[in-house]
Amino acid sequence: MKKKKILFFFVSIIFLIFFIAFTLLARAKIFNRLDFDITVRLQNHLPIKYDGILSVFSLLGSVEILGLLLLVIIIIRKKIASIFIFIPFVVAHIIEIFGKALFHHPGPPFMFFRYNLNFLFPSSYIQPGSSYPSGHSLRTIFVSIIIFYLICNLKVKYSKKFFLIASIILFDIIMLISRISLGEHWTTDVAGGAILGASGGIFSLIFL
After folding, report:
1. pTM for the full model?
2. How far apart are CA 32 and CA 202, in angstroms?
3. Any residues with CB less than 8 A from the CB of 39 and at least 6 apart, and which?
4. What are the mean pLDDT values of the chain's consecutive 10-residue runs (208 residues total)?
5. For the chain, which residues make up each domain, given as ranges?
6. Which of 80, 106, 138, 144 has a 20 to 30 Å separation from 128 between CA atoms?
């Protein structure tokens, strides 16, 4: 068990270093052209009729929903140490906020915006003016890693584990794509958020 915790710690640090390196490249505007091209092509290939479904994913990725899901996981596990998974969750969001405050990286212009629901959670009204990294991507990958770990430790048939893990991966893919197709983030924002979320999620496994 101790070896597992050490492994989780070092893998988490590796992802954090990767996030810092990726952020420096993004800050150098290396991916700007790629960001624009991917957004245009993705919106051209995803009909507007799917925007409603993708907008629901935007709500599911909010801090209110995924924060509540983490709380449910802690309650179900009935282990006091599990509550400490909120520490890396909060720290990752602090890094996100600092990233958006210190790294001037405006999101896609309004002409790309395709979110079409008449409801927003309070957290959606917080607009720091920069879009890097994506908070939705961060939270989605963070929580998914925890769920992956719990699924792998379930005493069920491998076929059920495979189905559950495949479902989570599909959810993640749709969530990350929705960030770009709805014009809420550039690909760079999504990638950065996913890497940061992976770092925090893997670190949280130490407490599970």
Report:
1. 0.93
2. 29
3. 108, 112, 180, 183, 186, 187
4. 90 97 93 95 92 91 92 87 92 91 86 85 69 94 96 88 94 95 94 97 93
5. 2-207
6. 144
